[in-house]
């Protein structure tokens, strides 16, 4: 199943790269009459400005994937830094980090995203920051939990006894052993990121026009569901496929990193 | 004396604030380990053995009492002791970093000291009965006994004067236990380190220790020569322990 | 007819073969110790008796019958009936085998049904402290928890009790008490015991018969005293000679050299051959068939030749 | 006594969290570009008018003072006055809370009633070779369809074809409970799809974890039936992570409710906050977020208590030996 | 919900008269509840005070309870309302004869004092509308039922400006004795009174039992739901829970095509989009008139109307297209010029690689308009970066500071009911809100004043204004902003003008007949 997920993701990445290479045409150019169903010249139809939907979906995939990947990477780095330090050191530092995480956690995700977008002004930076802030609490918590467990392992104690300094212990011993948690959680965060980007765009706080993102396309397509269903079909399917694929890959990753036994009740 | 614990008490506070329970994990414990000597430490679960070892390793500061290593109190900075004391800990499964190759694990104490003697690592692996080709393996490719051998190699690679074995063989199979115990004995004969050997298995302790200390409820209730202890235990509790053997 | 009969049982996990044609008989009222190195397949065999294996396990060959019923071929409902009526299990982790979210008394009640006398059953395992009833498992000591588990396993007076290292996680002093409880209770009820253990001296002391496992097979079985005192299989001899507790002061023990095998399929010959001091050519590629040496059933090509050789090794103190 | 200590500890840390939230939200609101004055007075307002308005709401004072005043008032139960409607924010929040609460409660109920059985079923059926893929794919799909996509779809389908349930209207619960339910079912369903899936997943993981516990093996060994084991041993032991999840999902659901309220045009707290952000109605944004955070925190305290009841090892009253 | 159900007669089909999109069928019985949905509530710090209201949506809601001296007809002709008739003894004097029997909804009869007080209060207020009334010299009572207004100089849009809600007649007695605060209470002479209002949720209006116009309003109750999300309004129309809704999307007609009983009509308005070019930003190329002209030339308002507004809007000059006497956008100087000339101008100004940011708010169709602008200007080699923000941030950025920080911005003006009214906003000294980005052009200001003073034929004068503003190009008019209204033919027989000047879809709601209601 996770091979299927990877395949889907690979196709999406190809899509995005194709858009960068100009395949499919200029996503912003007005190429034909408005709201045309799929046909030659516009293989996925045209939108309400007479633009071809195909290059827009391709651009949208790229924007959304890139945005969420960068955001999740940031989340991973920050969560790793804070989670590991808090988990290993404990004490006041831990208290402080956990309290901050709790504060962020207490904000409903999309409200947090809206506030960030309102403060920073809509656009990629805001979407990026929103995704980071929304995904960071859970990730930090889990990394911290894993770091606490790892800190009590004998090999960490051995390293300390050998006289290893803090950075060495954290980088050589704790980090590699919480990396699995980070990776698995990262895939889930990625799907959350995509959803947050979509939600923000839906509420009008997303990327700037004319740039397309999946969220923007779906938001626009949604209003034309009756008149031009092809507007939402393409991006909708791609968005769901992307999140699903990422989740499936995440599940696969977890099964691989933390294989579990099963037992029947009979 | 390589290690002297003098009247050491360790008190833990547990539970929520305002309603802390204070618990003496060690109460007025005095112990000495002489150069080249192996001191066995036995006692039931929760009697304070691990706490004692942590105090001996300088990982736990005593609430009261003094600890001297090599005649001096513990330095403020751990690094000054780097390479001079080591430990082999209980759980073979977690004794090695699963993300590091065996060779890297064994080399770590050297790295910390800034030394890079690659052949010291392979030499040490040979010494503990593992071929040099083990250096490239990951811990999950090893059996429990092999992992404990790697831990021992890591502990010995800097030729420390003092090693703590905290339940180092308890998790192993009897037949593997004997391999490891033999190995410890052989290496000690060769390198002459002192050791604190902790176990709740009196059989294992008898096999390697020169002297034995018995702990109960945080206190040392008896210290004696191994032979004396097993033939004529003085304390009532020691007698009980020996009966169960 | 024996109560439990395991014949040529082969159990495979995804990548390992845990049992490689194990044979075992337990007669009514008999106590049998099952010993062997870690990974030799003791737990797998013990679980197979009640078909309690994890999903990953597959029976490839062989058969287990309990009171004449083929355990692996029974429909679910019949299997449950068999477990209820004939079998009892005690496991290694005492606190883990009790439901952590339920008070001990409630758990017992659940097992005993409405009419059950909880106090009586606790009394049988020498736990008559009423506080135990109200306690949660994590509030008990290991020894107490194990006694509760025993009470639950013995509540239905099973004909066969499978005890998988029930004392391994306990302090040495408590071990004795718990073992006493199990054996005296079983003796009272006429229950047979299959006792899985590492602890050779304890097995020697308590069990009627011993079965020694190696590489997923029972390589030697027979009366406890005979098997451990006069081993007929080189592995049994090596095992018996390597318990540290058995060593007199200053005597150097000789461990079994090498590593235990991890099988991925049927072993071509004797699984112990690579570590065996007496191995000869055919041991490598010919699976030994059972032979009878004195009172023991042994899986060794050279069992007959080695009789004298092995008895020279020291005896296990009982 | 121990309970009291626990409570005071929790109260303290909850208060700290809320304080943190209040600082953050206050700062965020002040950092938003686009003045409140421009927004509400429109482009035609003079500088004098703007200043007058700022003075009316104390916006001309230093930010620390504003924060202090606000915090003091909030502590006294006064959430201030909406700068748009000039009505007390507290009353309006209270009036809107039932909508959001109803949505969330319905969604949580759906998660428990559907997600838990689904999770138990897929766990009990799970095979080591990755079997039960269909169930996993299904729950994967659930987390993959964002509310706004599903919501738009539902609004479209149900408004286009007379399917018995109305969208685009709302009836207060107090006015006509049956009609209210009819208008809330669809939004709640849209909101709950994600949490049902997540609950199913978590339940599945938790149950699979419990399935291999020795006490389950012991129960199987005693010849208990699967249903009996599920009922007596598995549900309760697997409940902790599921209950905890529901606590953390609340924050998510509150956020999701915002989008659902928007799509279905329900007068809940979520849409209130969104509109207020759009108009820089500071008092409303501050109070709304604080309320959401407060609900979340209280919810999690309750969850902790509940977890303690479910699993005595984790409870407040968990002592050592009795 | 309750409601009267009437059997539609054969004559029940709305036959739209000239100037109307729909005319209510008077044969239908009166009474019943009318469910409406609009996309935004009134919402201003100034509350309900009509004199301070400056947004069309607020005017629309307040117009249900307040009335003005005069009103506008379907063809923008000024018609009597609270004034039965008026005389204009000279071109600076207006004498209004007040209608008899008019009472406020509290039962008190309206007096000439109320009228005088209201107009004086408006003139003294800081509201935007004070300026639209023109150069009023004095307002006096002329007997008990006449009011005389004298202007300093002739001002043609005067009557039209009295026809909008800010000029409503307020209960001045109650306001003066402070028993009523118009910011929090609606108390007017109009057909409806407020029963309930929940900000951003709903309004409920009940018929004003004391309404002077016997037989009106037709519907007993108006339930107005605020539904910001278009899909929700469309849904409500389809399932019949709303009988009438305003729609924002220009393609709503297509989307509701095939929906049973739903009629979609597009009401033309005089409102129009315009592009602001900030000529005051230090160092900005847009300070150069040549650059602004080049932009103006490169803009293809036809394409904007066709693509961004789906053909529902019309290109316009400063005088809103559709108003009698407005100028022809095709005749503007910039319309005749080609993209090459624009490039030429840019080259002359040394701005070949011109690039600027266009700041817009995120309410549709502004983003669509902006994207077509971007494509237009790309033809002339101009790069436009679109910066989209919520309306609050947008206002902050556009109006928050002087000089303003944006490069270019997009917005729309209400076009009102007289072609001269909105031209006043091209004079930043009068308008005020655009001083931050607009340099006053004395010549243009003079042309504007002249045009508004002319009482006779003003087309030439207005054309001059249009041409001058076109060349100045600090604010470039683009296209008119259509309003889409949809209603349920089976539930409602409404009256709707074909063109609206004050963005008031509910202008004729008192005539609407309810067929049945849910
Ligand atoms: N960090 C700590 N905080 C609080 N209590 C502690 C801590 N470490 C140990 N204790 C308590 O101190 C006592 C002694 O613990 P210690 O681990 O030294 O025993 P031990 O003899 O090593 O037991 P075992 O054989 O189970 O390893 C125990 O009651 C334990 O619960
Ligand atoms: N769930 C499982 N999945 C895969 N392999 C397993 C599983 N359980 C046991 N095995 C393998 O089967 C073999 C026999 O295991 P088993 O647990 O029966 O041994 P044991 O004799 O009980 O060992 P111990 O003394 O350590 O309990 C081992 O090689 C083990 O690694
Ligand atoms: Mg210990
Ligand atoms: Mg086992």
TrEMBL record, chain A:
Q: How does it sit in the membrane?
A: Multi-pass membrane protein
Q: Which PROSITE patterns match?
A: ABC_TM1 (PS50928)
Q: Where are the transmembrane segments?
A: 65-88, 100-120, 126-143, 227-250
The record's InterPro entries line, in alphabetical order, gives: BP-dependent_transpt_permease, MetI-like, MetI-like_sf
CDD domains from the UniProt entry: TM_PBP2
Q: What is this protein called?
A: ABC transporter permease
The UniProt entry's sequence similarity note says:
Belongs to the binding-protein-dependent transport system permease family.
- Which SUPFAM superfamilies does the UniProt record give? MetI-like
List each coiled-coil range. Answer: none
- Does DNA-binding count among this protein's keywords? no
The compartments listed are: Cell membrane
TrEMBL record, chain B:
- The answer to keyword Translocase applying to this record is no
Q: Which Pfam families match?
A: ABC_tran (PF00005)
Query: Which domain of life does this protein belong to?
Result: Bacteria
Instruction: Report whether Membrane shows up as a keyword of the record.
Output: no
Q: Which residues form the ABC transporter domain?
A: 3-242
For this protein, the record's PANTHER family field holds: D,D-DIPEPTIDE TRANSPORT ATP-BINDING PROTEIN DDPF-RELATED, TRANSPORT ATP-BINDING PROTEIN
Q: Which family does it belong to?
A: Belongs to the ABC transporter superfamily.
What protein name does the entry list?
ABC transporter domain-containing protein
The species is: Nonomuraea monospora
Q: Which taxonomic lineage is given here?
A: Bacteria, Bacillati, Actinomycetota, Actinomycetes, Streptosporangiales
UniProtKB/TrEMBL annotation, chain C:
Subcellular location(s) of the protein: Cell membrane
- Entries under SUPFAM superfamilies matching the protein: P-loop containing nucleoside triphosphate hydrolases
What's the Enzyme Commission number for this chain?
7.2.2.11
Membrane topology, from the record = Peripheral membrane protein
Q: Nucleotide-binding: is it a keyword of this entry?
A: yes
Keywords per UniProt: ATP-binding, Cell membrane, Ion transport, Membrane, Nickel, Nickel transport, Nucleotide-binding, Translocase, Transport
Q: Does the keyword field hold RNA-binding?
A: no
User: Reaction catalysed?
Assistant: Ni(2+)(out) + ATP + H2O = Ni(2+)(in) + ADP + phosphate + H(+)
Question: Signal peptide span per the entry?
Answer: none
Q: Which SMART domains match?
A: AAA
Cross-referenced Pfam families, in alphabetical order? Answer: ABC_tran (PF00005), oligo_HPY (PF08352)
The family classification in the record reads:
Belongs to the ABC transporter superfamily.
Q: What is this protein called?
A: Nickel import system ATP-binding protein NikD
Name the lineage: Bacteria, Bacillati, Actinomycetota, Actinomycetes, Streptosporangiales
UniProtKB/TrEMBL annotation, chain D:
- Family indicated by similarity: Belongs to the binding-protein-dependent transport system permease family.
Q: Which UniProt keywords apply?
A: Cell membrane, Membrane, Transmembrane, Transmembrane helix, Transport
Q: Under what name is this protein listed?
A: ABC transporter permease
Write one Pfam family the protein is assigned to. BPD_transp_1_N
Q: Where is the ABC transmembrane type-1 domain?
A: 97-308
Q: How does it sit in the membrane?
A: Multi-pass membrane protein
Where in the cell?
Cell membrane
TM annotation in the entry: 103-124, 136-158, 178-198, 242-264, 284-310
């Amino acid at each position: 199943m996770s091979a299927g997920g990877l395949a889907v993701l690979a196709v999406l990445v190809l899509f995005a790269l194709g858009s960068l290479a100009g395949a499919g045409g200029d996503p912003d150019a007005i190429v034909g009459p408005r709201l045309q169903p799929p046909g030659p010249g516009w293989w996925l139809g045209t939108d309400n400005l007479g633009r071809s939907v195909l290059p827009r979906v391709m651009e949208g995939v790229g924007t959304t994937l890139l945005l969420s990947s960068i955001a999740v990477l940031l989340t991973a780095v920050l969560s790793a830094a804070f989670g590991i330090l808090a988990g290993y050191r404990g004490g006041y530092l831990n208290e402080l980090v956990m309290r901050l995480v709790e504060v962020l956690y207490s904000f409903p995700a999309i409200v947090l995203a809206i506030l960030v977008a309102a403060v920073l002004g809509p656009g990629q930076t805001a979407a990026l920051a929103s995704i980071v802030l929304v995904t960071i609490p859970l990730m930090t918590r889990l990394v911290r939990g894993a770091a606490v467990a790892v800190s009590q392992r004998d090999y960490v104690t051995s390293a300390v006894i050998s006289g290893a300094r803090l950075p060495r212990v954290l980088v050589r011993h704790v980090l590699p052993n919480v990396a699995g948690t980070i990776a698995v959680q990262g895939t889930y965060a990625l799907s959350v990121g995509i959803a947050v980007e979509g939600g923000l765009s839906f509420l009008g706080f997303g990327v700037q026009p004319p740039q397309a993102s999946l969220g923007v396309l779906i938001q626009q397509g949604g209003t034309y569901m009756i008149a031009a269903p092809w507007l939402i079909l393409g991006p909708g399917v791609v968005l769901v496929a992307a999140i699903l694929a990422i989740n499936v890959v995440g599940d696969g990753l977890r099964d691989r990193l933390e294989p579990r036994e099963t037992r029947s009740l009979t | 004396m390589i290690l002297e614990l003098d009247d050491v008490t360790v008190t833990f506070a547990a539970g929520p604030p305002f309603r802390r329970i204070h618990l003496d994990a060690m109460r007025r414990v005095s112990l000495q380990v002489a150069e080249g000597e192996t001191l066995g430490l036995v006692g039931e679960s929760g009697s304070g053995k691990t706490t004692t070892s942590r105090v001996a390793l300088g990982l736990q500061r005593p609430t009261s009492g003094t600890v001297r290593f090599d005649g001096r109190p513990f330095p403020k900075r751990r690094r000054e002791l780097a390479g001079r004391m080591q430990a082999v800990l209980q759980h073979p499964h977690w004794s090695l970093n699963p993300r590091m190759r065996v060779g890297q694990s064994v080399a770590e104490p050297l790295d910390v000291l800034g030394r890079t003697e690659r052949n010291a690592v392979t030499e040490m692996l040979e010494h503990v009965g593992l071929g040099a080709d083990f250096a490239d393996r990951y811990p999950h490719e090893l059996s429990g006994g092999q992992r404990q051998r790697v831990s021992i190699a890591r502990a010995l690679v800097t030729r420390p004067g003092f090693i703590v074995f905290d339940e180092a063989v308890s998790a192993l199979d009897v037949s593997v236990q004997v391999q490891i115990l033999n190995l410890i004995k052989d290496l000690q004969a060769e390198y002459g380190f002192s050791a604190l050997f902790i176990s709740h298995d009196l059989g294992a302790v008898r096999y390697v220790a020169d002297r034995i200390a018995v702990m109960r409820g945080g206190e040392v209730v008896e210290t004696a020569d191994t032979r004396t202890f097993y033939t004529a235990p003085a304390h009532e509790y020691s007698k009980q322990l020996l009966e169960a053997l | 007819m024996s109560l439990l009969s395991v014949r040529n049982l082969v159990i495979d996990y995804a990548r390992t073969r845990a049992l490689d044609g194990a044979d075992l008989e337990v007669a009514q009222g008999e106590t049998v110790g099952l010993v062997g190195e870690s990974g030799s397949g003791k737990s797998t065999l013990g679980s197979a008796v009640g078909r309690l294996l994890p999903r990953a396990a597959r029976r490839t060959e062989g058969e287990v019958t309990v009171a004449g019923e083929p355990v692996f071929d029974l429909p679910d409902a019949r299997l449950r009936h068999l477990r209820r009526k004939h079998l009892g299990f005690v496991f290694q982790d005492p606190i883990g085998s009790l439901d952590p979210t339920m008070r001990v008394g409630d758990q017992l009640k659940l097992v005993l049904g409405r009419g059950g006398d909880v106090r009586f059953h606790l009394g049988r395992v020498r736990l008559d402290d009423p506080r135990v009833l109200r306690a949660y498992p994590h509030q008990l000591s290991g020894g107490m928890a194990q006694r509760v588990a025993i009470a639950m396993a013995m509540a239905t007076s099973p004909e066969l009790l499978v005890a998988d290292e029930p004392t391994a996680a306990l302090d040495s002093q408590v071990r004795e008490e718990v073992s006493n409880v199990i054996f005296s209770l079983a003796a009272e009820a006429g229950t047979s015991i299959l006792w899985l253990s590492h602890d050779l001296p304890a097995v020697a002391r308590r069990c009627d018969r011993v079965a020694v496992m190696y590489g997923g097979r029972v390589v030697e079985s027979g009366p406890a005293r005979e098997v451990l005192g006069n081993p007929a299989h080189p592995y049994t001899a090596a095992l018996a000679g390597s318990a540290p507790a058995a060593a007199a002061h200053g005597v150097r023990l000789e461990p079994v050299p090498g590593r235990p095998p991890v099988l991925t399929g049927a072993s071509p010959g004797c699984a112990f051959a690579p570590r065996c001091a007496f191995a000869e050519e055919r041991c490598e590629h010919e699976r030994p068939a059972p032979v009878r040496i004195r009172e023991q059933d042994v899986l060794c090509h050279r069992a007959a030749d080695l009789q004298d050789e092995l008895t020279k090794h020291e005896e296990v103190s009982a | 006594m121990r309970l009291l200590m626990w409570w005071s500890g929790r109260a303290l840390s909850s208060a700290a969290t809320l304080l943190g939230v209040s600082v953050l939200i206050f700062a965020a609101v002040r950092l938003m570009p686009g003045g409140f004055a421009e927004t509400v007075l429109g482009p035609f307002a003079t500088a004098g008018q703007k200043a007058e308005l700022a003075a009316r709401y104390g916006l001309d004072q230093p930010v620390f003072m504003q924060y202090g005043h606000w915090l003091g008032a909030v502590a006294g139960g006064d959430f201030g006055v909406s700068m748009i409607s000039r009505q007390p924010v507290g009353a309006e929040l209270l009036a809107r809370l039932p909508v959001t609460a109803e949505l969330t409660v319905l969604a949580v109920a759906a998660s428990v009633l559907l997600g838990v059985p689904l999770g138990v079923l897929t766990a009990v059926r799970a095979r080591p070779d990755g079997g039960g893929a269909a169930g996993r794919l299904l729950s994967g799909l659930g987390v993959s369809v964002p509310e706004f996509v599903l919501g738009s779809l539902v609004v479209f389908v149900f408004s286009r074809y007379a399917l018995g349930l109305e969208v685009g209207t709302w009836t207060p619960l107090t006015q006509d409970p049956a009609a209210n339910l009819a208008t809330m079912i669809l939004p709640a369903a849209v909101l709950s799809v994600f949490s049902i899936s997540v609950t199913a997943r978590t339940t599945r993981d938790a149950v699979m974890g419990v399935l291999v516990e020795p006490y389950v093996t012991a129960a199987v060994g005693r010849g208990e039936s699967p249903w009996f084991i599920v009922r007596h041993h598995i549900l309760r032991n697997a409940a902790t992570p599921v209950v905890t999840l529901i606590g953390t999902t609340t924050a998510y659901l509150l956020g999701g409710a915002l989008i659902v309220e928007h799509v279905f045009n329900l007068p809940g707290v979520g849409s209130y906050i969104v509109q207020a952000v759009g108009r820089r109605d500071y008092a409303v944004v501050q109070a709304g977020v604080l309320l959401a955070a407060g609900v979340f925190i209280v919810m999690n305290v309750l969850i902790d208590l509940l977890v303690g009841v479910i699993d005595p090892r984790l409870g407040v009253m968990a002592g050592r030996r009795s | 919900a309750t409601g009267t159900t009437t059997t539609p007669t054969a004559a029940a089909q709305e036959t739209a008269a000239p100037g109307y999109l729909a005319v209510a069928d008077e044969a239908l019985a009166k009474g019943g509840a009318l469910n409406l949905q609009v996309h935004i509530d009134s919402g201003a710090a100034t509350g309900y005070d009509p004199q301070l209201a400056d947004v069309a949506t607020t005017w629309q809601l307040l117009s249900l309870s307040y009335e003005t001296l005069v009103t506008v007809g379907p063809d923008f002709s000024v018609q009597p309302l609270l004034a039965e008739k008026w005389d204009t003894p000279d071109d600076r004097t207006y004498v209004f004869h007040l209608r008899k029997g008019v009472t406020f909804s509290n039962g008190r009869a309206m007096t000439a004092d109320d009228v005088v007080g209201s107009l004086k209060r408006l003139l003294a207020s800081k509201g935007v509308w004070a300026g639209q009334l023109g150069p009023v010299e004095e307002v006096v009572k002329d007997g008990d039922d006449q009011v005389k207004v004298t202007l300093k100089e002739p001002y043609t849009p005067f009557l039209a400006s009295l026809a909008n809600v800010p000029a409503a007649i307020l209960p001045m007695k109650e306001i003066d004795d402070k028993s009523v605060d118009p910011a929090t209470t609606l108390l007017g002479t109009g057909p409806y009174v407020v029963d309930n209002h929940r900000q951003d949720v709903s309004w409920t209006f009940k018929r004003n039992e004391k309404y002077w116009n016997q037989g009106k309003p037709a519907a007993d109750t108006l339930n107005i739901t605020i539904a910001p999300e278009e899909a929700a309004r469309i849904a409500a129309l389809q399932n019949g829970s709303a009988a009438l809704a305003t729609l924002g999307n220009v393609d709503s007609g297509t989307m509701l095509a095939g929906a049973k009983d739903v009629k979609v009509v597009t009401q033309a308005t005089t409102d129009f989009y315009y592009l602001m070019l900030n000529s005051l930003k230090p160092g900005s190329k847009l300070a150069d008139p040549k650059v602004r002209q080049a932009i103006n030339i490169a803009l293809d308002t036809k394409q904007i109307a066709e693509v961004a507004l789906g053909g529902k809007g019309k290109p316009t000059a400063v005088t809103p297209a559709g108003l009698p006497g407005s100028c022809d956008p095709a005749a503007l100087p910039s319309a005749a010029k080609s993209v090459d000339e624009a490039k030429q101008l840019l080259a002359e100004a040394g701005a070949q690689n011109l690039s600027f940011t266009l700041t817009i708010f995120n309410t549709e169709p502004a983003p669509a308009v902006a994207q077509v602008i971007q494509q237009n200007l790309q033809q002339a080699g101009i790069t436009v970066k679109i910066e989209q923000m919520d309306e609050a941030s947008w206002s902050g950025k556009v109006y928050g500071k002087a000089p303003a920080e944006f490069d270019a911005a997009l917005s729309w003006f209400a076009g009102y009911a007289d072609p001269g009214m909105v031209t006043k906003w091209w004079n930043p000294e009068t308008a005020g809100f655009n001083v931050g980005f607009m340099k006053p052009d004395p010549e243009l200001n003079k042309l504007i004043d002249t045009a508004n003073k002319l009482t006779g034929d003003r087309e030439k004068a207005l054309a001059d204004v249009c041409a001058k503003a076109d060349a100045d190009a600090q604010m470039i008019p683009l296209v008119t902003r259509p309003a889409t209204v949809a209603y349920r033919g089976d539930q409602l027989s409404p009256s709707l003008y074909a063109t609206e000047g004050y963005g008031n879809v509910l202008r004729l709601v008192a005539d609407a007949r309810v067929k049945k209601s849910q």
